[in-house]
Design a protein that fits this description.
Blueprint (H helix, E strand, L loop, with lengths): L17 H9 L2 H7 L2 E4 L8 H13 L3 E6 L5 H7 L5 E5 L5 H8 L4 H12 L3 E8 L7 H14 L5 E5 L5 H6 L8
Parallel strand pairs: 1-2, 2-3, 3-4, 4-5
Helix pairs in contact: 1-3
């Protein structure tokens, strides 16, 4: 394993296989069956590893386990096509509705995210929208209203949750000597 000489980049995960993940999931099959619970793939960003994520979710569906994926939905539409029949619930994080402000704070426009939410709604998929609340950035009435209006314009049954902001990422920015804009 390569190690960054400054210590700014650290390996904090472990390599695993689909089979290893499924073995862990199978340990809780009784719990899933009794509780109605299931498996949620979440961040980093599970759609950045579509083959691995899809293999896990397909395996879960074959075992009648409810599946969910938590994502920014910042991906090519072809990737979402692959997940349509193996995901029961898409949990989509939408931070800022204004494309320029989204780009200012995330480095990317949100146009792909908005189109992917529309696509999933058109396909009648179950969606939950989550908005991380960041003071004076995402927690403005203008932003929250814009997101609510967008969601209700495509399907007013899609629920929206507001999440407290988790500041843990600030340490990573400091280690990498990157300006942290959310102070």
């Amino acid at each position: 394993m390569n190690v960054c000489p400054t210590g700014a980049i650290q390996f904090t995960g472990s390599k695993t296989s689909t089979a290893d993940v499924i073995k862990e999931i199978e340990k809780d099959l009784l719990y899933y069956n009794v509780s109605g619970g299931g498996v949620t793939l979440t961040g980093g960003e599970p759609l950045f590893q579509p083959a691995f994520s899809a293999a896990i979710l397909e395996s879960c569906k074959n075992r009648n386990i409810h599946t969910a994926i938590e994502s920014s939905l910042f991906c090519e539409i072809e990737i979402l096509h692959r997940f349509l029949n193996i995901v029961d619930l898409f949990i989509a994080d939408i931070k800022i509705f204004d494309p320029q402000q989204h780009k200012r704070f995330t480095g990317k426009s949100n146009e792909i995210i908005v189109e992917n939410i529309r696509f999933l709604a058109d396909k009648r998929k179950d969606i939950l929208i989550r908005i991380p609340i960041v003071d004076k950035i995402t927690d403005t009435e203008e932003n929250k209203t814009a997101i609510r209006n967008f969601i209700s314009s495509i399907d007013n049954r899609i629920p929206i949750e507001y999440l407290s902001f988790n500041p843990l990422a600030s340490n990573n920015y400091k280690k990498l000597d990157i300006p942290y804009l959310l102070k």
